[in-house]
Specification:
Blueprint lengths: L7 H8 L3 H9 L7 H13 L6 H8 L4 E6 L6 H15 L3 E6 L4 H13 L4 E4 L8 H10 L3 E4 L10 E4 L1 H14 L5 E5 L5 H16 L9 E3 L4 H11 L8 E4 L2 H13 L9 E6 L12 E4 L2 H17 L8 E4 L2 E3 L10
Helix pairs in contact: 1-2, 1-3, 5-12, 8-9, 10-11
Amino acid sequence: MCFMSTTIVQIAKSLGVSPITVSRALNNRGYYIKKETKEKILKKAAELNYRPNHIARSLRIRSTHAIGLILPDIKNPFFPNVASSINKIANSREYNVILCSSEGGINKEKSEVSTLLNRRVDGLIIIPSDCNNGSDTYKQLKETNIPFVLMDRYWRNINCSYVVCNDIYGAYLATSYLIKLGHKRIAHFSGSMIVTSAENRLKGYKKALEEYEIPYSEELVIETDVTQESGTRAMEIILEQKENPTAIFAWNDTVAIGAMQAIKSKGLKIPEDISLVGFDDIDVSSLLYVPLTTIHQPQDELGETSAKILFEQIENKENPQIKQILLEPELVVRNSCKEVTQ
């Protein structure tokens, strides 16, 4: 048995009004309609279980009222938190957000971009998985004239809109805080250098060491990804060295949590034996068995600002302005660090 959906024409015929009057009442677009007429139309639409045809509407107005969001990893709590703030702005404009994950791979990212373009989204927000290889995606977006904004990271050597945290300054804050506590042998668990946020946090770490005349040591820098497991492995490697570091600066909180687990499993204590600083300030960081000192990224502002810039571009597609926003981080001191005496 086939059930036909209710149409505007059927509602109009049942009430003896024109379809255009029904359309205006349902869409609430500001046209004057008598209050009693509008109430009758809305009541009849509810009785007949009317559902708007979004596909037909999108073809008519050339807008799907949807934007795409591509994240590199949906398991890391930082990214869903940012996605939530984007969704808030989108919903306030009656837009839907289509969420995709590149799983940290450039080919998967390209595939997701193509999928979203085929679904005729009005714009894209992308957290790049590989900041060295954005040219193909950039060319595709420019050829289709789709507005887009990069977030948290940016493509190297491509001039486009992005919103990022001041990662160099944030890492400098973390490292200099440890140095001021008396630490000199400070390890850094970095991210992959194909990611600008990881590269810039390494720069901030080096900047603090140089400013305080502490020699940089390659053996104290271990590359990780974004997972707890990589933080655990990095910590195990560091603890195999002849001389343990007195402090660790991890490039994100998830990696720091993994390091924390390895420290505990080795019978060591935080901060008595090793001090630990993360980056991001995800919600769980304050709830750990040792609350984590970390660098706070303004996650809500990151997502909201990215969404607002995207909607500005959607509304002005013919003459979009490139905006590159740098948000300032803050040091959040909790219980995972202690002062040491040399």
